[in-house]
Amino acid sequence: MNAHQPRAAEHAFVLFDVLRAHERLAELPALAEHADTGLLTQVIEEAGKFVGEVIAPLNREGDEVGAQWWDGAVTMPPGFRDAYQAFWQAGWPSLASAPEDGGQGLPTVVEAVLHEMLNAANHGWTMAPGLLHGAYECLRHHASDDLKARYLEKLASGEWLATMCLTEPHAGSDLGLVRTRATPLPDGRFALSGTKIFISGGEHDLSDNIVHLVLARLPDAPPGPRGLSLFLVPKFHEDGSRSAVHCERIEEKMGLHGSPTCVMRFDEAQASIVGEPGKGLNAMFVMMNAARLLVGLQGVGLLDAAWQKANAYAQERRQMRAPGTASKAGEADLIVLHPAMQRILNTQRAWIDAGRVIAYRTALELDVQKHHPDATQREAAARWCSLVTPVLKSAWTEQAFAGGSACLQVFGGHGYVREWGIEQHVRDARVAMIYEGTNEIQAIDLLVRKTLTDGAAGLLALLADLATDLGTQPEAQGTRDALARFGDFIRNRVVPLAGTTPDRPFWLADDFLRATALLLMAWAWERLAATAGHGADARAAFWRWVWPEFEMRLTMMDASLTG
Amino acid sequence: MNAHQPRAAEHAFVLFDVLRAHERLAELPALAEHADTGLLTQVIEEAGKFVGEVIAPLNREGDEVGAQWWDGAVTMPPGFRDAYQAFWQAGWPSLASAPEDGGQGLPTVVEAVLHEMLNAANHGWTMAPGLLHGAYECLRHHASDDLKARYLEKLASGEWLATMCLTEPHAGSDLGLVRTRATPLPDGRFALSGTKIFISGGEHDLSDNIVHLVLARLPDAPPGPRGLSLFLVPKFHEDGSRSAVHCERIEEKMGLHGSPTCVMRFDEAQASIVGEPGKGLNAMFVMMNAARLLVGLQGVGLLDAAWQKANAYAQERRQMRAPGTASKAGEADLIVLHPAMQRILNTQRAWIDAGRVIAYRTALELDVQKHHPDATQREAAARWCSLVTPVLKSAWTEQAFAGGSACLQVFGGHGYVREWGIEQHVRDARVAMIYEGTNEIQAIDLLVRKTLTDGAAGLLALLADLATDLGTQPEAQGTRDALARFGDFIRNRVVPLAGTTPDRPFWLADDFLRATALLLMAWAWERLAATAGHGADARAAFWRWVWPEFEMRLTMMDASLTG
């Protein structure tokens, strides 16, 4: 099995040729100096080199050996610590951090490209730095000056790693049920007690310290989510003493063995509050939204990695006669010549390429939302991020699993054995449909929380933007029609749901998200097609085998609306 | 985690209430004495008890410990040998074997029920006896009297187990490429040399002997599949000496760790020919067809096992407020009350129930095909088995994986950890999409080999039979219309494919199989609905969330036909 090799040129193609990211970034004063395709391409190429040489080769052993727990300590798989030390010392975690915190101030989208590559190469390893930038942003926006002085640079540089401690045994999707308690101490700090589960990287030997961000309740807090505050608990205090936070065990999982999923017990651990009391979820949301985009990128990256493996195998292995070829009895054709295998490969390629366009566009809009001088542009960007992030997270993590499984199928029986590494992708990818908000919760987020609450004004504006973006080329008429049709459906059928029985919208949320995902893909494929010479096979696969689901989802929604 | 518990009453319900199996069996003189619902129900209940008490509890450790290879020998997981010894000594392998071979002469469908239960409870363990009955039938129909005298009873009783040695490193789906050689010896036997891979149960300690059925080439054989002959090589000869057949290693796999997948090397092993030279594939097909039905039953059983787990969890675990319930802040509702979770559970239930109807009907038709006094009935039954088996194998193994993954989703993060056992179902189920002919090969089998070769006469007759079977009840009009519509589509669009470029049919084979599967499901749901009080939720789920794919597949086929 060969380790995954990033293809920097393909990422740069989407960024500059398809999305014209440099032109967009040039509009943002804070980032305009980096709106240089030469510079950004160089960063992406270097990232590809680092990922391919240092991170990718550790993936297999990360799965085979896994993170090991012993008496509260976690030993990471061979090579993981050295790779992490090389990673932060080379400055990779600080790409998009602010220069005043020691960061490089590059656009968010460059970090997005890096993380897509990292996840494709080694999902398990990448979990550890995956939450780092979110934790940095969370502290940057919500922590006191004192806390910032003590932690911000270490998180910006990645010298220390961070966790997000939300889930408890009885409180998974529903954070309002969190019971961990924080009791004020006389010195202004807090004593924090409780048990958190499913904490990725809660304990490990990659970095010399770990900064835990923990949701907990103050003694006088009201029940439910508004009673939650956010606290910081380091593994080691500044004086070198160890906090009262213990890793009780790590989970045995289906995959992702390179990432320790920890049960963390806090025993009156000394904690500092981050932001205001009762505003914990608010402070956490910065981190969670960033994490959702990264999980969507995981989906794109993992599917791409599976595709690369399957495609290489199909170009090399021969099996059976393919129809319409001239081979003789006793000879066999390359697997890639068989229609069923071509269909799998081209269909997954369609998902990867469109997903990349949508994900990079989202990362760009994050910067536009922050930095654009024009308020209307900032508003449109905020709308894009808010509405597209759950769609990307849900649809592309599902595809990483289902499409990864299709790529496994290309190997026949060899796909089921570990030797080729393809089954690891499928096992690893499965978790992304669950964490950072299950895919079903993303669907509720899109329809119930973000579409019905403003009479669909935001989503309709997004659809209108997509249509405008496609211009008037006749080839895109089908996509413009579909956008208009979905708009009508939303106005006439979905918006009236806001006044119906409360459970009705929940029955069509999943279909609604899928239909939105397919429309975004259709837009992305128009953009890709308008860029000379790109993937005719994948484009045809999209229209022939992916797009027909749109009609099916409308049918299903119709049944849920009338049923 | 609780071990799976078969629900005998649900199996008996499909068999007698829905399919009226006893009436059908009463038409077959060879089996009429067993057409007794009391007797058959008792066998099914006993089977459920045995499976629940003896086989199911071994499933988890079978996965955790797995089969272990050492120096050519394979040690099975704890309890596996004892369970197997109890299994054959209780007579379970011989349920459907002929009385003259020491069997019990029960209908094939009873064995089907047993195997569905076994696979649901412990897929890994069940692989070992999975091929036994096929091997028995193969010898019964093709072996010489001398070979039969030496092996048939041992296989009928299950005292010895059997393998099917087809695949070689370069010859998986394409058996025509097999290179294993058999050289005649002066005494009428053969010396067999070559390496076979992916041999399930090639070596183990469950039974005292193992009978290998091996495809190989005689020295003067032509290239391709017509040059293949079938040979028998026992692990131990009658004199107790060991054959020159070695297990070189077992594969590390994604799942199914309880079943050793062996690389078997034959070094001039003494072999006996089974059937005529050059007719090896023909003899093997008996075994392969039986195996395909069993794999379809694995799909149904594995999905049912995953559903049972998910349903139990959803009835017990509380998380978030469900819409439309009266719970207060700080309280949570049962997972089963959330629409997205109900949708998953009801949809998978729809697949399980319909799959069971189709699978049991197929098992019944196998006996009708063999034993019915009326040639027309035998012919119709042969048509059913030939056309429905690939559909069942492909669509239900895919559903065991995709629907098993949906059941995993019901557990949220807990589904991804091993503790609850649901992730094992997903890992185990994945292989069934590959072995016994990949799902893509099943689709080619259905469309190219079985539909286009007779101008679709067989398939059109099957559709007509389904429509007739539904009678004239007004509720079934939609299904009758769909059957008629697919018939027209086949006549007008598919049949003309036979004269087109050779690769064209291959592009729509997968969609064609899916459309056929959905029509069979629609028929099964009409049958289920006509039986008082059965599963209204699952029925509604079928029409709302499963059936719309039918239209989508027609759209996709249309694009492949015109594209």
Task: Summarize the entry for a quick read.
Two copies of one chain form a homodimer. With 563 residues, chain A is an alpha+beta fold.
Structural summary, described in words:
The structure is a homodimer of 563-residue chains. The first copy, chain A, is of the alpha+beta class. Among the domains of chain A are: 136 residues, Butyryl-Coa Dehydrogenase, subunit A, domain 1, CATH 1.10.540; 119 residues, Butyryl-CoA Dehydrogenase, subunit A, domain 2; 126 residues, no CATH class. Chain A is built from 20 helices and 9 strands. In chain A, the strands form 2 sheets. In chain A, strands 3, 4, 5, 6, 7, 8 and 9 form a 7-stranded mixed beta sheet that branches. Chain A has a two-stranded antiparallel ribbon with strand order 1-2. In chain A, helix 8 packs antiparallel against helix 10 and helix 10 runs antiparallel to helix 11. The longest helix of chain A is centred in the C-terminal third of the chain and has 36 residues. Chain A is globular and about 80 Å long. Chains A and B meet through helix 11, helix 12, helix 13, helix 14 and helix 15 of A and helix 11, helix 12, helix 13, helix 14 and helix 15 of B.
Itemize the secondary structure elements and their pairings.
2 copies of one chain form a homodimer.
Chain A: H1 8-18, H2 21-26, H3 37-55, H4 59-64, E1 68-70, E2 73-75, H5 80-89, H6 108-121, H7 123-130, H8 132-142, H9 145-157, E3 161-165, E4 181-184, E5 190-200, E6 210-217, E7 228-234, E8 245-250, E9 261-274, H10 280-314, H11 339-371, H12 375-410, H13 413-416, H14 422-430, H15 439-451, H16 457-469, H17 477-494, H18 504-529, H19 536-546, H20 549-562
Parallel strand pairs in A: 3-6
Antiparallel strand pairs in A: 1-2, 4-5, 5-9, 6-7, 7-9, 8-9
